[in-house]
Amino acid sequence: MDKVVPGLILAALVLLIFTVMWRSWRRRSSADAEHGVTAVPSSFAPTAEFDVHYVATTRGGEPLERLALPGLAFRGAGQLRTAPSGIALGVDGEQPVFVPASALRTVDTTNVVIDRVVEPGGIVRISWTLADGTPCDSYVRLREPSNQPTMCAAISNLIQNVRDRSDRESESNA
């Protein structure tokens, strides 16, 4: 009997902690869903595909502030596909998310994000802008590390093509 009351108090405390965690995650998920992500258009024609381990998406420049975007809320294995129109990032079991080439800002590498620390340059950071203008960073690790330069170059080319097109349009309007 002398252990029942402390045991019940401890069980109630654990239940309370899990309830608060569950409610906080639901609140964050519903708030982040309002940012809006784009589904992959039917016209998307991938030119390259890479097997990745999706790590997380965070607010731009804040690698510890996770965004629970629909399709990108949980880490897991997935694919990153590139096409002239943008990239599609899909996590197994989730709807893939389309990032238009015009929304991509930079691609580089890092070794730290949220609760993951790896060797230097082991995580690819893709910086992009959500439809509502919120900057964010998505982090992936390639299952085949030798493909990392190819994937980074493909994304960099998309970014450069958009910038070149924008520059030509600015010059023609001047």
What does this structure look like?
- The protein contains 2 helices and 10 strands.
- Strands 1-5-4-3-2-10-9-6 form an 8-stranded antiparallel beta sheet, covered by helices on one side. Strands 7-8 form a two-stranded antiparallel sheet.
- Helix content is 32%, strand content 33%.
- The protein is an alpha+beta fold and 174 residues long.
- The chain has helices at residues 4-33, 148-173; strands at 38-39, 48-59, 76-83, 86-91, 97-100, 104-110, 112-113, 116-117, 123-129, 135-142.
- It folds into 2 domains: 1-34; 38-173, Roll (PH-domain like).
- The chain is elongated.
- A hairpin with a 2-residue loop joins strand 3 and strand 4 (86-91).
